[in-house]
C-alpha cells in the first residue's frame, strides 16, 4: 500500500540579487524539477543527494512546512501543506541540525508539553515514555535541561520527543550528523527497532553506512531530479564500475593462461609484489576466475572487492 505519493513535484525559489544601488535582478532557482516517487507503509527509505540537490526542500514540503510550486503530494490521507494541523498529529520530525525542544527545560518537561500539544492520554503517555526511556537510554538525562546535553544525548532526546504521540511515520533529516560511534550506534539501533515494529521512516543522510545498514529502498536526488530509485543493493548493478579480484600468487616467467586472463579482465600482474589485480564485470566471472587460478597456480591469498556505495554515489553525482 502506498503511504507517500509524490508526483511531478516542483519547487521554485525566487531570489533577488542586488545589481547596483537602485537595481536588482530577479532569479528563479528550480530546487525540485518534477519529482515522482512513492513510499510504502513500513518502508525505510534513504533519501540522498549532494549539497543543494533539494533534499531539505522535499522534507519541508512532505512535513507541511512549505507549499510546492506544482505537483501532487499525499501522505496517508493528508495533503501536508493543506491539512497541516491534523497532519502533524500523525508524523514525527527531526532536523539533525536544529533542536525542536525547549532549550532551557528539562527533557521530561518538554515531553509533558508535547503530551499536551498532541493530546496523548495519561496511560498511553506513561507506556510510551517507559518504552522510549528504555530503548533510547534516557533515564539519566530526563531531568537535565536540553542545553546541558551532549550532541548524542540531545539526539536521543529529540528522537524521544518526536515519538511521544507514537506517529506512523518519521521524517529524519541527518539524525546522526556529528555523532560519535557509540551515540550513532544507539540512534541506528533505535531506528531499526521502530522500523521493525512497523514505523515508516524517511531518512536523509550523507552517511552511506547508515543507508546500507538501515534502508531497504533508496532515492538519489541530483539537481532537483531523482536519478535512482530502487533497492539499496541493486544500486551496485547500475554502474559499470568493476569488481576487483586481487590474488597473491607467485608466477615464474610467461604463462599463456595468465596472459589470457589478464587481457580478458583488463588486469595487471605485479612481479615484485607477486600480485594479480583484475577488473571484472560480473560476480559470475569472479567464481570462474577463482576456479581457474586455484586449479592452475599456487594462490596464497584471494579476495574480491566490490565497488563501495560511496564510489557508486560519487559517480552518479558527477555524471
Ligand atoms: N529559502 C530559499 N531561498 C532560495 N533558495 C533556496 C532556499 N532554500 C533552498 N534553496 C536552494 O534550493 C536548492 C536546494 O536546496 P536544499 O536545501 O533543498 O538542498 P539539500 O539537498 O537539502 O542540500 P544540503 O545537503 O546542503 O542540505 C539549492 O540550490 C538551494 O540554494
From TrEMBL:
One of its GO terms (molecular function) is ATP binding. Keywords: ATP-binding, Nucleotide-binding, Transport. PROSITE patterns: ABC_TRANSPORTER_1, ABC_TRANSPORTER_2. Residues 16-248 form the ABC transporter domain. InterPro entries: AAA+_ATPase, ABC_transporter-like_ATP-bd, ABC_transporter-like_CS, ABC_transporter_ATP-binding, P-loop_NTPase. It comes from the Bacteria. SMART domains: AAA (SM00382). This is ATP-binding cassette domain-containing protein. It comes from Oceanirhabdus seepicola. The lineage of its organism: Bacteria, Bacillati, Bacillota, Clostridia, Eubacteriales.
